[in-house]
Amino acid sequence: MAAVSITPAPRITTLILQRKTLAIGLAVILAIALLALFAPLIAPYAPNKLSIVNRLKPPSATWLFGTDEFGRDIFSRTIYAGRLSLTVGAAATALAGVIGITLGIVAGFFRRADTVIARIVDAMMAFPDILLAIALVAALGPSLATVIVALGIVYAPRLARIVRASTLVIRELPYVEAARALGVPTWRIMTRHVLRNLVSPILVQATFIFAYAMLAEASLSFLGVGVSPEIPTWGTMIAAGRQYVGQADWMTIFPGVAIILSVLSLQLVGDGLRDLLDPRLRKDL
Hints:
Layout: H1 12-17, H2 20-37, H3 39-42, H4 74-109, H5 111-125, H6 129-140, H7 144-170, H8 174-181, H9 186-194, H10 199-223, H11 234-241, H12 250-277
Helix pairs in contact: 2-4, 2-12, 4-5, 4-7, 4-10, 4-12, 5-7, 6-7, 7-10, 8-9, 10-11, 10-12, 11-12
């Protein structure tokens, strides 16, 4: 009797390395996260340490990214600002996930609630994200918690629409109908049979929302309606450097590059995850 050979499933690391965009995106965002996490050990100076005699110093061995108008080290401030941006992005994504997934599943599973929730979602998405975020922050008052709540509410409709559309399809599948016929409780069907099959689109959209939230936080800080001004953020650093463009360009270049790298890497991760998790786009396996 001929032996049957079984090909082992590829490991997750192999699948990631096979997709260069996903591997590059993960490498960059992990590097940024590690710099931000170990900022107290890596930063040569305290982020708010003043040194007026060293104001507007260009990048050098002593000041890697130069100094600002108060003599503060821009390298130290940049990596400390990354901590806040990543925190806001992660927290806003988590909040948007809780709100969006809940609204999406309820709207997709219960026809009576669908119309109301769908209209609310459409109305929220009719406003530009940044304008809605500014309005919410202005109404609630500027603070770190307010920014997180505002961005979580702003980006929840994006996830709600995707979850709703997928739930409308899944609820009509035979195994869901069989579960209903067997008397399985509705909440169990929604969590065990519906939500499980939504993991892939939720993960992909979450990475995009993470990037959008980080960019929106920088925009709010740049406009002066974000967190407290004494807390270093990439947006406030760029805003402070506007009046020194041409004289001290490094004040805007380095925090701007940090924003670009963070957002671009998360976009690459999202695209890579979409290709990895969508069977229609997978060219191997």
